[in-house]
Amino acid sequence: MNSYHLDHLGFLETEAIHIMREVAAEFERPAILFSGGKDSICLLRLAEKAFRPSDIPMPLLNVDTGHHFPELNDFRDRRAAQLGGKLIVRKVEDAIAAGIAVPAPGEISRNRLQIPTLLAAIEEFRFDCAIGGARRDEEKARAKERFFSFRDAFGQWDPKNQRPEIWNVYNGRVNPGEHMRVFPLSNWTEMDVWEYIRQERLEVPTIYFSHTRPCVRRAGQWLPVTDILPPKPREEVRELVVRVRTIGDIISTGLVESPANTVDDIIAEIAAARVTERGSRADDKASEAAMEDRKKQGYF
Predict the structure, then answer these.
(1) pTM to 2 decimals?
(2) Using an 8 Å Cβ cutoff, are 161 and 60 in contact?
(3) What's the rounded mean pLDDT across residues 138-148?
C-alpha cells in the first residue's frame, strides 16, 4: 500500500487550497484582497491551483491609500491582467472626498483611513467574504485570528468571541450586512512564503530586492525619501542599498540595508534575521495594541 506524503510546504498549500474552496462553496460574493505584496501573490497562486482551468471565481479588491510604492501598484495591475481577473481598486483619496474617510487634524498616515474605505467597498459590492493574506506569525493581534474571522454589521472584530474551528469545519454563516474575513495563510511564516515563491517561481515586485534609494533615519529605522515624505530640516539624506521586508504606507514602511537580490538571498537573510518582519513598520511599532485596535474597527 502506497502512502502519499506531503512535505511542509505541500501541507500548507493543501490546507490553504481547501480553505479557498470552502469559501467558494459557502459564500455568494467573495473577494480576494490583492495588494501586489508577497502574501497576496501567494494567495493568487493558491487560487489558481484551487480553481483552474476555470476562471478564479471572485474579483480582486485593493484599497489604494495614495501612499503606495509605485512599483507595487504597477505590479498589482500587471498581475491582475495576466490572470484575467477583475481588479477593483478603491482609493482613500476618493473616500476622503466623499466624506467616507475623515482624516484627523495633522494626520499624515493613511493606514487608519483604509478602514472606512474598505468597509465602504464591501458594502458597495455586497461582499460577504474577503480573503486576506494575513499570517499569525506577523504580530500578536493576528496570532489571535481564526481561519474564518467573523465581522459584524459594522465591520468590527471581537477577538474574544470567535467561532470554533474543530476538525477543519468552518462556520461561514453570516446575516445580511455581516461578512467574513478568511486567512488561508494563517499557519504560514515569512520563511514559508518565500520558500513557496521560490518553489512556484513566482514574480514579486522589484522593491523586495536590493536597490539604491535615498533614505532618512527616523525612530531607529530607514524611511524612503519621497514627495510624500520629504526630509526634515537638518536631516541627513543617504543613498543606501536597501529593500523592504513588508510593504505598507510609504511613509511608515521601514527599509532594511541588504545586498539580497535573489529569492535565495532573501531566504538566507530571513534565516539569520533577529528582527521580526513587521518590526520595520513604524505604525506597528508605535503601540503593541495598535494593530488589535485597528482590526477591531475593521482593518484587514
Answers:
(1) 0.88
(2) no
(3) 81
